[in-house]
Design a protein that fits this description.
332 residues, eight-stranded mixed sheet, alpha+beta, 8 strands, 9 helices
Length: 332
């Protein structure tokens, strides 16, 4: 905690004078002699400040070098504003040097990202883990990495998974849950209604604003892709019983692996887990109507779209909860 606070403080200490320097440089440009201004400002904005950003922010946090490139271009834009022209001073020469450097950084980082992605694919058959490992290299934080991985997974499952087989490891017995509670029937109904609704809303809104109509339509299409991706993920990521564990899934929203040794009991009704504190339960049943609950002896790690949580009871919906409970009890 102290290290994290120290890093936040160092970031604040760096950002405050940098912003002041940016503001001062732009505001005082007209009072600086042209010869000095044309050299000093671009060097400060495009070299000095990005270098400080790398030393104080990127390197201590082990971020990707790609984070430095936007800082360079912000400095370039402010230099153009301050000098009044992209041809002023040493800007053209400095840009001709920095662009190849940026391209080299981009190629190096892209190759490294591709290597990390390939390593993740070799370690796991789960696409969400591919994206999570890759994004964790870029942002170094679990929550943004998980959120970005979930978004990428939605597009993968919606567009690229149609010829793939469900994620079932050797020796696992899979149990489906995509039809539980009428979820897939609801998705099919929405699939029939969405095209008519999107076209109708677009035509209605376009009477007032064409830009707003296209914005609403784009958001509607995004919602369709998101729902289709999550529905497809529910098919591609079944719940499974392995040799000594049970693997719980809920589309892109949840993943947990529970060793048999940690399982206390299996319940098919929420009444059986009412004695468990609400903070110790996660309900991932369809429309929050779980038809099976796994109760563990100790808190277990559950990976969600935003972070990781530790709970004792997880509620799920299955197409055949009795068969799942019977198979799990037999395995135990």
């Amino acid at each position: 905690m102290e290290i994290a606070n120290a890093r936040r403080l160092s970031l604040a200490i760096f950002c405050a004078p940098v912003l002041l320097l940016y503001a001062y440089g732009v505001a005082s440009a007209q009072f600086i002699p042209g010869q000095i201004e044309g050299v000093a400002l671009p060097l400060d904005f495009m070299v000095g400040i990005p270098l400080g950003f790398y030393l104080l922010v990127v390197r201590p946090r082990k971020l990707t070098l790609l984070a430095v490139i936007p800082v360079i271009w912000i400095g370039y834009g402010l230099s153009v504003v301050a000098l009044g022209s992209p041809e002023a001073g040493i800007l053209p020469y400095l840009l001709s040097v920095l662009v190849p450097v940026e391209l080299a950084i981009a190629v190096r980082e892209i190759r490294k990202i591709a290597k990390i992605h390939q390593s993740a694919k070799a370690r796991s058959a789960d696409p969400m883990m591919w994206f999570k490992d890759t994004m964790h290299y870029l942002v170094r934080k679990d929550m943004p990495a998980s959120m970005t991985a979930a978004e990428l997974s939605v597009w993968y499952y919606a567009l690229l998974s149609w010829r793939k087989k469900p994620y079932v490891l050797p020796g696992e017995k899979a149990f489906s849950y995509h039809n539980a509670g009428g979820y897939m029937n609801m998705m099919l109904g929405l699939a029939l209604a969405f095209p008519v609704e999107i076209i109708g809303v677009h035509m209605l809104v376009s009477r007032w604003s064409i830009a707003a109509a296209f914005a609403v339509t784009a958001l509607s299409v995004y919602a369709v892709v998101w729902l289709a991706g999550d529905a497809r993920a529910r098919i591609m990521r079944p719940i499974a019983i392995g040799a000594d564990y049970v693997r719980l899934e809920c589309g892109i929203q949840m993943h947990a692996t529970i060793p048999f040794a940690d399982i206390e009991r299996i319940c098919v009704s929420e009444d059986d887990v009412r004695d468990i504190e609400k903070s110790d339960k996660l309900n991932y049943g369809t429309f929050y109507q779980a038809n099976a609950w796994i109760l563990s002896k100790r808190p277990i790690v559950v990976r969600t779209m935003l972070s990781e949580k530790q709970v004792r009871a997880i509620g799920i919906s299955l197409d055949d909860p009795r068969a799942f409970a019977s198979a799990l009890e037999k395995a135990l």
